[in-house]
Design goal:
Monomer. Associates with the 50S ribosomal subunit. It is found in: Cytoplasm. Its cofactor is Mg(2+). It is built from 13 helices and 15 strands. By secondary structure, the chain is α/β, with parallel strands linked by helices. The strands form 3 sheets. It has a 7-stranded mixed β-sheet, with helices on both faces. Helix 3 links the parallel strand 3 and strand 4. Helix 4 runs antiparallel to helix 5 and helix 5 runs antiparallel to helix 6. The longest helix is centred in the middle third of the chain and has 36 residues.
Length: 430
Amino acid sequence: MFDRYEAGEQAVLVHIDFPDESSREDLHELQMLVSSAGVNAVGLVTGSRTSPSAKYFVGSGKAEEIAQQVQISGADVVIFNHALSPSQERNLEKLCKCRVLDRTGLILDIFAQRARTHEGKLQVELAQLRHISTRLIRGWTHLERQKGGIGLRGPGETQLETDRRLLRARIDHILRRLAKVQKQREQGRRARNRAEIPTVSLVGYTNAGKSTLFNTLTAAGVYAADQLFATLDPTLRKIQLQDVGPAILADTVGFIRHLPHDLVAAFKATLQETQEADLLLHVVDYADEQYKDNIDQVNQVLDEIDAGEVPQLTICNKIDLLEGMTPRIDRDEDGRPIRVWLSAQQGVGTELLFQALTDCLGRSMVQYQLRIPPNEGKLRGALYNLHCISAESYAEDGDWVVDVRMPAKDWHRLEKNVSQELTSFVVHKH
């Protein structure tokens, strides 16, 4: 339907500084986004304003400067580091005589390039269609003409109305297919909940090192690169934790400041892995000067997707780029881990992360010494199946004496399945 620019084109970048913090964007981040999209930046126009102009977003003088830059550099596209309204895009395109793309359109293009799975492609298409629907009027030169030709003359819907109807039909179709995918994901989550397998979800600003850490912990071979949005499709892998047993680790899409709402809405099924997690590993690139801002942006998106209340463990990544930093665990006054300092790239400090995960997920452990008579073979078998026996011996009267350590939930479940009160077998509590 639309002539979208191809990756590899020449672009003029536009970055405007605003005094208002909520409107401010990062120029370095724009350059990284452009690089991630495979676009070659041939010019940069910067400026400052107190507020956007209604016609061009920038002032008319600055708009002329952008048009001149396009002419001089022979650029194919102008990329703004800001969200533009449909009318602003149209006015700028008329002036510059080339394609104009805003920050949302650029992020959508990167997502379109990165999507690999069926679900990921559907989600990207949904976000693109929602974004395009507001800009539909400039997609055609014949939009307001009524259909003509034999059998189609006279009153009827305009081409624009037809296109809008087709667009709505396609969006409805994608939403139905995504609902089916969401049901499948929910079934998987219910099965994990029944088995009481905890889920740990990696979250963080884009390019913080989540996929590198994921690969280091699971040897999954997930694509990881020094670019924004290298990961788009969620990946789940099982890991083993001492005293906890199996846990599911989920790698998710990176967040970014002013993440387009179309994307948040489209990726709801994917982000549900984050909402339903027992623990979030918030990966932070501590070598980035703006790491504090990035932490705030991630927490903001987590609040938007109703995951702000999920317990977090901060992973201070890339310590190999910081002078004099060594791997360590920071704990609160109750001894609970709150930060782990490591380098995912170098694989340094990952054993501390496993230790911290065990502490966070396996804090409700119980330790008992039990004395089990020979006629309680069923209980003995159940303990073997739980792999919770740390020491065993036989008493003189033939009773079996065992030291057990297990999660409290396993102990309570065991209590329901034995013939007599489980505490009657306890001779010592550690």
